[in-house]
Automatic annotation (TrEMBL):
This is TraR/DksA family transcriptional regulator. Residues 79-114 form the Zinc finger DksA/TraR C4-type domain. InterPro entries: DksA_N, DnaK_N, Znf_DskA_TraR, Znf_DskA_TraR_CS. A zinc finger (dksA C4-type) spans 84-108. The keyword Nuclease does not apply. The keyword Disulfide bond does not apply. The lineage of its organism: Bacteria, Pseudomonadati, Thermodesulfobacteriota, Desulfuromonadia, Geobacterales. It comes from the Bacteria. It comes from Geoanaerobacter pelophilus. Residues 7-75 form the DnaK suppressor protein DksA N-terminal domain.
Length: 139
C-alpha cells in the first residue's frame, strides 16, 4: 500500500509541476499581447482575440486541474486517497494511474454524470417552457 501511495504521490507532484509550467507559459504568452492600437487587418485581430480566449480557457482548465491535484495530495496525506467518495470502495489502480486525482470509481462517476445530464435536461426544458409561456402572454 505504501509503494502505491508513494508512486501516486510522485505522479501527482509531476502533474502539478507540469500544470504550473503550463499556467506560467499561458501567462507569459498572454503578457506578450501588445496593447494599444490594433495592428493588421480585421482577420488578424480576430485571430489574435481567438488565440487569447483559447489561452485563457486553457489556463482555467490548468488551474482547475491544479486544485484537483492539490486535493488528491491532501487525501493522500490524510489516508483517504484512492477511496471513492460515493460508495467508499477502493478505486482501481488502473483508474488512478489514468486519472490520479479521481475522486470516484468508474461506476459512481458514470452515475453522477448521468444524474447531472438528467438535471441539465430538466432545467433546459423548464427554461424553454417559461420562454414559451412568456411569448404567449405577449401575443
Amino acid at each position: 500500500m505504501v509503494d502505491k501511495q508513494s508512486e501516486m504521490k510522485a505522479i501527482l507532484l509531476k502533474m502539478k509541476e507540469d500544470a504550473l509550467n503550463e499556467i506560467t507559459k499561458a501567462m507569459k504568452s498572454g503578457a506578450n499581447v501588445v496593447t494599444g492600437e490594433p495592428s493588421g487587418d480585421i482577420y488578424d485581430q480576430a485571430s489574435s482575440e481567438r488565440d487569447r480566449e483559447l489561452g485563457m480557457l486553457l489556463g482555467d482548465r490548468e488551474r482547475e486541474k491544479l486544485v484537483s491535484i492539490d486535493e488528491a495530495l491532501l487525501r493522500l496525506d490524510e489516508g483517504e486517497y484512492g477511496i471513492c467518495e460515493e460508495c467508499e470502495e477502493e478505486i482501481p489502480l488502473g483508474r488512478l494511474k489514468a486519472l490520479p486525482f479521481a475522486r470516484h470509481c468508474v461506476k459512481c462517476k458514470s452515475d453522477i454524470e448521468r444524474q447531472q445530464a438528467q438535471t441539465k435536461r430538466f432545467e433546459e426544458d423548464r427554461a424553454y417552457r417559461e420562454i414559451a409561456i412568456g411569448e404567449e402572454d405577449e401575443g
